[in-house]
Design brief:
Layout: E1 21-27, E2 30-31, E3 35-37, H1 49-52, E4 56-58, E5 61-65, E6 71-74, H2 76-89, H3 97-109, E7 123-132, E8 145-154, E9 165-169, H4 187-202, E10 210-212, E11 220-223, E12 227-232, E13 235-239, H5 248-259, E14 263-267, E15 279-284, E16 288-297, E17 303-305, H6 312-325, E18 336-338
Parallel strand pairs: 9-16, 13-14
Antiparallel strand pairs: 1-2, 1-3, 1-8, 4-7, 5-6, 5-7, 6-18, 7-8, 10-11, 12-13, 12-15, 15-16, 16-17
Helix pairs in contact: 2-3
The structure holds pyridoxal-5'-phosphate (PLP) and 2-OXO-4-methylpentanoic acid.
Pyridoxal-5'-phosphate binds at residues 60, 222, 225-227, 245, 247-250, 284-285.
């Protein structure tokens, strides 16, 4: 759809066709130069490890139109490093950081007409993927891979702006195993959470599931496909766990919280501590900050309530994070990477 016809304000978080994706192929130990492709389809061997054994990892990051007209990526080096960690975790070759960053630049530049305007609340979402392409019927890793990035303009993951949603704790489901792949961003973790999340949404928990640590079910892990944090007084509290994804958003919020004079605690968070929090929220690239209105623990019957309106600290954190991302506030931590929209060489 041409840019003039897009209603940026009403975009939701979903697939939206754009002009180009970028691809690089790994074969004989070498990644090819990234190339632009207008076709959103991929020819995959039926016996590919990505299709048969879930040998696949992905990322998610955003490019924003800033107040001064620049288009900037938010902390893409962090996604590059996390993708390397995910690749190593499931025996895939690491995508070099400079290849990752070049591919990000290319895909934004060539889809620049889909970067939503400043102030719309929307952004261009980049979805890097690494997929095992080689045919292996025996259970072993591929020697051939595709690294690709596609892009979609997206609005908020939940509802427009900051609204509060209920979430549920159900001990009958885990998204990841202890010492499994929970700390990697691999597709299998998401398939593993589909049933639990589907049931949560069906029961009216718009924020989905709050997963507990899979070993003992005593500590809070993460909130669907987002990290969890709570506010108690002037303290930002977020779980430390081996089975959760290290969120770039959460890391940024910890820094912003420090800037705002909060103390930050990253440590195991016992479920009972939920009753001591004044505010609770999910955070991530897609979710940004999604305040939680209540957490219903189905097994114990306890309900932890935080109010139907977002709390003051969540609001302040949201304003600061989105302010930095959109260039409305100074980028004191050097998180923005401008996309070169003019260069002829890329
Ligand atoms: N946890 C999970 C399981 C996720 O899928 C995501 C999304 O990427 C996050 C947390 C948040 O991470 P980030 O802030 O880097 O997007
Ligand atoms: C993100 O926040 O970028 C995610 O990847 C979450 C979800 C859409 C998978």
């Amino acid at each position: 759809m041409p840019q003039e016809e897009t209603d940026w304000e009403s975009l939701t978080f979903g697939y939206y066709p754009t002009d180009y994706n970028v691809r690089s192929y790994y074969s004989k130990g070498v990644w090819s130069r990234p190339e632009l492709c207008a076709d959103p389809m991929v020819a995959v061997h039926l016996a590919a490890t990505g299709l048969n054994y879930g040998q696949q990892a992905f990322e998610g990051l955003k490019a924003f139109r800033c107040r001064d007209g620049r288009v900037c990526l938010f902390r893409p080096e962090e996604n590059a490093r996390r993708l390397q960690s995910s690749c190593a975790g499931i025996m895939m070759p690491e995508v070099p950081e400079d290849l990752f960053l070049e591919a990000c630049q290319l895909v934004v530049k060539h889809n620049r007409r889909f970067v939503p305007p400043y102030g719309s609340g929307a952004a261009l979402y980049l979805r890097p993927l690494v997929i095992g392409m080689g045919p292996h019927v025996g259970v072993s890793e591929s020697s051939e891979y595709l690294f690709s990035i596609y892009a979609c303009p997206v609005g908020p993951y939940f509802k427009r702006g900051v609204t509060s949603v209920p979430v549920v704790i159900q001990r009958s489901y885990d998204r990841a195993a202890p010492r499994g792949t929970g700390r990697f961003k691999v597709g299998g973790n998401y398939a593993a959470s589909f049933r639990a999340m589907h049931e949560a949404y069906e029961e009216g928990y718009q924020g989905g599931c709050l997963f507990l640590d899979p070993q003992e079910k005593k500590f809070v892990d993460e909130c669907g496909s987002a990290n969890f944090f709570g506010i108690r007084g002037k303290t930002y509290i977020t779980p430390q766990s081996e089975s959760i994804l290290a969120s770039v958003t959460n890391d940024s919020l910890m820094t912003i919280a420090g800037d705002l004079g909060l103390s930050v605690e990253r440590r195991p968070v016992p479920v009972e501590e939920l009753s001591t929090l004044n505010e609770a929220a999910a955070c991530g690239t897609a979710a940004v900050i999604c305040p939680i209105s209540k957490i219903v623990d189905l097994d114990t019957g306890r309900i932890y309530g935080y109010g139907s309106e977002p709390g003051p600290v969540c609001r302040e954190l949201y304003d600061h994070l989105t302010g930095i991302q959109s260039g409305r506030l100074p980028d004191r931590h050097n998180w923005l990477r401008e996309v070169d929209l003019k260069s002829e060489t890329t």
